[in-house]
Amino acid sequence: MISPLKLISVSIIVGFAFIIGGCTPGNLGSISSSLNSRYNDEQPAISGDGRWVAMVSNRYGRREILLFDVQQQSFVDLPGLNREGAIADSPSLSRTGRYLVYISSIQGRPDIFLYDRATRQSKLLTQGYRSWLRNPKISPDGRYVVFETARRGQWDIEIIDLGPNIEIDQPDGIL
Amino acid sequence: MKIRVQHSIISSILTMITLTGCASYPRLLNFPFDSNGRSLNSRSSELSPYIAGEFITFISDRNGSQDIYLFNAKTRRLIDLPGLNAFDEIALNPTISEDGRYLVFMVVKQGQSGLYLYDRTTQQKRALIPQIKKEIRNPMISSNGERIVFETANNGQWDIVITDIRGNPLNMPTNNI
Predict the structure, then answer these.
(1) ipTM of the complex
(2) Which residue of A has its CA nearest to B153?
């Protein structure tokens, strides 16, 4: 024979468990560590070796570029990349994910930036470029950047050469 | 005597120009503009360029249909892609593996839209993931040719999917088509 007092306490405990656990969808996991979230995750770019995926996400309450490590299944920090008051857009990765090219703006015009994960610094690539531009992509070795330009009044392709003196992005142990 | 001094000054200026002039990077590369549509840029629009190794693939409507083109930056020539483009299809977002073998792109076509793979060694095009229930956009192949990422519309927002070269999602949480 179960006493009514016991029944009430059991139902209260079960109710609490539903309140605490019931509203989190099981397939999303924790926000910080899973590939997708309940917000927009867009513009995926995969590194040449297939290990890193850069994306534009709204999951932390602002539109920013995130970098996901497919092997470790977690996000890694990109210190200095996402700035206050600017939107970073259109990420593209080199072979091992060392270089990340993206679009941002300083004075209301789109510019192409190159972020180096080794030095944690962003470099402006299109200083003084006088046309609208979009969709930058970096080559796997990290030397060339292609993008669309409006220079001739239509969308055309332009290529930036970063020069022979950059450090080529290649896996460790290959010369 | 005077002529010789002048000559030496001019030659030193010339060497200075050649030494400093070539060393300024980053710089824009000059590819010839061709109004006949046999080069990288034409009178029509060129869209969504992608570079891997010596290959640059992009979209152009220079032949009256939105098609995929492949340009070799070393030889500065377009490469033929037999069987890839069709007049009743709109092609979008081409990317290529670094060895130049696989192209991954979107095709919009009545009834058969989806994510496509083209193999340059067999010259065959096939649908990897047909776009039946969910919208797909912005696909990309990793330059080693092993993985593909794209966006899919899921529960009213865009999600990211990572698959292998055959279109099977990698086994990890929240990675569903």
Answers:
(1) 0.85
(2) A40
